[in-house]
C-alpha cells in the first residue's frame, strides 16, 4: 500500500488485512522469498507483536477466484 489513508486501505483493515509498504514487495522480490511483514507495516495495521504475521516460508495467500455471472458483460455490447 503506497498510502495508508485511502478507502482501499480502510477496507483492507476492515477485512482483517495488514497494510505493508511497497518496500516489502521489492525486498521479497530481491531476496526471492516471502519476508515477515512486521517491519513493513503501515499506519499501525497490527500490534507491535507478531500476531497476524506469517512465517517466512509461508506461501502467498490464495485468493478466491472471482465468480462470473452468466451473461455478465459490458452493457454496451
UniProtKB/TrEMBL annotation:
InterPro entries, alphabetized: BRCT_dom, BRCT_dom_sf
Q: Where is this region: Disordered?
A: 39-77
Stretches assigned to the BRCT domain: 19-42
Q: What is this protein called?
A: XRCC1 protein
Q: Which gene encodes it?
A: Xrcc1_2
